User: Fold these one by one.
Assistant:
Number 1:
Amino acid sequence: MPQQPDTAVHEARIAGVAVDTRHWIAGRRVASADTFPDVSPIDGSTLARIARGGPTEAEAAVAAAKAAFPGWAATPRAERARILRAIADGVEKRLEELAIVETTDNGALLRSHRRGVMPRVARNFRFFAEWLLTLGHEDFTTHTGGPAAPGHTNHVSWDPAGPCVLITPWNAPLMLATWKVAPALAAGNTVILKPAEWSPLTASLLADIAAEAGLPPGVLNVVQGHGAEIGDDLTCHPDVRRISFTGSVATARRIAASAASNLTPLSLELGGKSPLLVFADADLELAVDLAVEQFDNAGQVCLAATRLLVEESIADEFTERFVAKASRLRQGDPREAATDIGPTIHPRQIERIDGFVRRAVAAGARVVFGGGSHARLGGLYYRPTLLTDVAQDSEVVQEEVFGPVLTLQTFVDEAEAIHLANDTRFGLAATVATGDHRRAERVTAELVAGTVWVNCFFVRDLRAPFGGSRLSGVGREGGTWSFDFYCDLKNRVMAPKGFHDHG
Ligand SMILES: NC(=O)c1ccc[n+]([C@@H]2O[C@H](COP(=O)([O-])OP(=O)(O)OC[C@H]3O[C@@H](n4cnc5c(N)ncnc54)[C@H](O)[C@@H]3O)[C@@H](O)[C@H]2O)c1
Ligand SMILES: O=C/C=C/C=C(\O)C(=O)O
């Protein structure tokens, strides 16, 4: 076990909320020899110093998860579900604290955290608790397959798999973490959660909440640190039975290579370059609303429809109305109720975003509005930006910016719209605005995307499969798909003969 200093410096105080900045391993707080700073994107202030995990902590966390696994796997489903519900209760009880800590840590809107994100965190736990209980098992009887087979019973069960490494990004830290933690725990697995180093705090609060809810020690472990320093030791570990990762394509490649050493099953939820297709027959008001919504969370949303594809005949009117509406967005402190767009997570991300915009302009793109940081708010507040005159094969159309930057292209007919929509290496999501039901059926059938929305955006039913095609990911999570991933599926085939008893 790593060293264990006892001082109160291992704490962040965010609006009066105490957050332990150490790891949570085997039901204990564990410090590291070194720390790293956690900076708020709201004003660049240092919030805390976070335990900087490495090989020792990775080893300790996997060992804890391995030791706790048999007990948790053997815990009756109803009891596992009860504890998950108690975690959901704890999240709801501390909703305001979680919301303010998350906003301070990652800069996303406080009102979104209060109204949408943290309630969803609780829902992730409740949903998978209930789904576990309905999942049951599947039985079917073999009727064919030769003279010996008839009457054989196939009994398919979702068995716990073992320790799971869950690695998550900073754009929706607790929501994305619990989307994995909840099904992994429900399935009877133990967890090592590694939150992103730019937003480490709410994962630590989750450890507290889970412990208060009665989750046994070692079932959920939280390790902090830089992916480059602790990642490989987690993903290469032979005792790890599943790896689920949400983040960038570059990191996913690295993780997949590590996982290859033990052939550890992987679930990857990666980036996107999703389109919003606006047909001339669409409700224009609705289409404009959907387009402006893509600036939510300052564009740091994997699913964001960052490519606006608009039918040429309405492009001028659409652009005019879009600009009018987007110009009314208020950028500022994400804790204030009136703010629509907050800051970008980190100066490095701003540089990246601005680099995309500058190179696009150099290649001939026109900045319709935005471009650059907000003059008064300063460097961390990149303005919502719209670019036109962009070529389909240009960098800004093909690569994920992960900031408040949209491009607008036009098309003349359905075939061209579909071609442009599908012509990237990604396939996470797509949104279609049309007033024609048959067109909706035709176009959605052709789009390459894990999720396609029609006349709506980000409507999430947790029973549905969620994930991406192409470079947007590997596998699907959600509902039974989550259990298919987190469990070892087993088929027991029982012959109708050979037993001494018939009971
Ligand atoms: N598809 C989805 O559901 C979804 C959701 C949100 C974000 N994303 C994507 O995430 C990206 C933004 O997040 P990010 O910049 O934090 O991604 P990132 O890949 O840089 O980091 C994600 C996580 O991976 C860790 N990591 C880094 N190197 C590692 C390594 N070698 N081994 C193990 N772990 C390592 C990081 O510490 C962090 O916790 C965007 O591409 C976005 O589209 C996808
Ligand atoms: O930024 C990405 C958001 C992803 C959303 C989900 O994973 C979800 O709603 O489950």
Number 2:
Amino acid sequence: MKRIAFLGPEGTVSQESARYFFAEGTYEFVPYALMSDVFAATADGTADYGVVPIENTIEGSVKHHIDLLVDSESLPIQGEWVYPSIQNLIGVKSDASVAERIAGLRKVVSKDVAIAQCHDFLRSRLPQAEFDYVSSTAEGVRIVKEAGDASIAAIGTRMSAELYGLDLLAENITDHDNNYTRFIVIGRERLSMRPPEQHKTTILVTLPEDYPGALHQVLSAFAWRRINLSKIESRPTKKKLGNYYFYIDIEMSLDSVLLPSALQEIEAIGCQVRTLGSYPYFSYSNRPNN
Ligand SMILES: O=C(O)C(=O)C[C@]1(C(=O)O)C=C[C@@H](O)C=C1
């Protein structure tokens, strides 16, 4: 049985999303307290694959997770998919009306990303509440359950409310309907799944220091071959102030004829290129079947 590591405890958006992606076959879903634990377990073979939220419609790239990916040399990206983040306001069980219970809330506990996704709701409906930032949405739900305190609520999935026996005080409270998260799966082995419709390749490019216009040259190596880039993001190398590398998503497989020659051209001008993975990509309407 393949073991899938995800950010726990049970009931996170990551777990819902992992169950959606790894729908068929026998998998064991194993929760880890921190994303760095997910990477470590996948690296040392305790888990076969790790599930990583990498980008959100509202919050953009999850920079910390990109940095973990860059630091884990041995773990290529093996797949990518999109999953909706549906957040709910969750509180302890009570006989009072929902309006009274919401009015009585003094604190909201959740993951930073989830709080940001519900900003307008929280400002308009809970202006009195302060926020506590915790390691995941389900961790917030667990804390509310443990505290048994009607003045604290969590923001999390319907699944987590059911798991911890709590009430949904308000459903689907994200500010935008199209609130999706892009997830990647890391691991040593390729995934066996039906042939995908789309492929992506992710690379890291470090520019040479003494080559003016190098970034323009990099982009033109893709442009004249009509290779589409779906994302380019700079991240500090953490070695020297002002030194950056570029994290680039390319909408093409490394097996295609064009891409290797584009990468060779970039290396020829003195750039360092590292491939983080070449993998199947599934949009939300195109559910994987593995
Ligand atoms: O806290 C969770 O439930 C997670 O799975 C993590 C995470 C994230 O950090 O991006 C994943 C997707 C949601 O948009 C919010 C939170």
Number 3:
Amino acid sequence: MPKPILLVEDEKNLRHVLLAVLNAEGFSTMEAESAEQALERLNEAMPALILSDQRLPGISGTELLRTVKKRYPQLPFIITTAYGEIEQAVNAIKAGAEHYLTKPVDEGELIALIRQTLSRFGTPLPPMRQEPRRHGLIGISRAIETLLEIIDLVAPAPSNVLITGESGTGKELVAKALHLASPRAEQPFVAFNCGAIPLELVESEIFGYERGAFTGATRSQPGKLELAANGTLFLDEVGDMPLSMQVKLLRALQEREFTRLGTHQPVRLSARIVAATHVDITKAVAEGRFREDLYYRLNVIPLHIPPLRERRADIAPLVQHFLGQVCQAIGRPAMSITPEAMVAFEAYDWPGNIRQLENLIERMVVLNRHGVIQRADLPAELHQAQGEGGDVPGAGPFDLPALERQTVLGALEKTRFNQSQAAVLLGISRKQLRTRMKNIGLLGEQDGEDDSGEG
Ligand SMILES: Nc1ncnc2c1ncn2[C@@H]1O[C@H](COP(=O)(O)OP(=O)(O)OP(=O)(O)O)[C@@H](O)[C@H]1O
């Protein structure tokens, strides 16, 4: 039986709402209406985490936090403060809280923070409730939340979408999410990689052909555009499409119809086009390798997916997600990861983004003998990102670098990476913030020197 979450909240209605939210997510719970009662509860049973209001009758939430951290340094603590009480929040973070949340508490944020905190402390988590609107997109960063909001906003429209982002950032997954969130969800989703197909085949693959259209065309074949019907056609690596094909695609998009090769019979184009590219397509346009008019046609709605290193808050939930997925797929009992290994995962730059992370987790699960992923198991490049350090099995003692990373990252995310605001939030100077960002690998050595501009 996993350890419960201890909720300390004096407002009865809110307490009941929060308990219901936690229970619905699969967490077991304990409750207390004051700090005094919470301390009594701690004598009865050890929770996995404490979620406490700052303002309580009698002993305050911050005082409770201090007492708890003195007695049980490795017990994670999240504090909730009233809106506008930033000072209280800063005090709580200084006193050792892993996170703070401002009221009114956002359910999604609360659950994400609890999951993230527990996973950092090596506590097993109940399986993620699949929220329908996430469409398999894991992540808690502001970038992912914004992406999900835009997906919901643009999914109902028939407009073409151009997704940009480095390799492995999840462009195809986002295209599928757009499809699933759209009224076309029941229709086909057809993916076509323009880069992986020999030049001469692109046209016949996209438009289809009639029997006898060319040597070897022994039977008629519908193209991807036709197969997608009223659904979505995902054109991956569209930047690699040959120029001659770009002209034909543009014409089809403009006229909303096309013909199979070897016939003049027009076919109506009803599919929504979602294109993606990992190369800088504006550069290709400037260099004459990509038609400007086609670029504007495709780029009606631009969607950019930032690389994983620019949304490090997603790393821990992704690691947990893939760990669960791979263990289940190969029929192994659930595996955990030490906080030290997680810190190394979070510090690494992931040039291959989520695909690289996913593949590494699979390799580590398959090769693992002890049921726990430890820092020593990680490949060399992940060690280099973090510097040397030992492993502490299980939850381990209080993990300072991890906490620092968490606190700094949390403040940056809350302020949309505005360093001045994040510094105020943390109660430190902007220069100190930049030093901390450098310490945890968020800034390069040369970046750390600048202490003037905004950003
Ligand atoms: N936010 C996410 N949550 C869960 N899984 C993800 C997420 N983003 C990407 N993935 C997974 O990572 C892998 C790579 O994603 P995907 O193929 O969509 O990337 P891509 O940007 O299209 O890559 P490429 O440019 O190389 O074609 C897939 O297995 C995908 O399911």
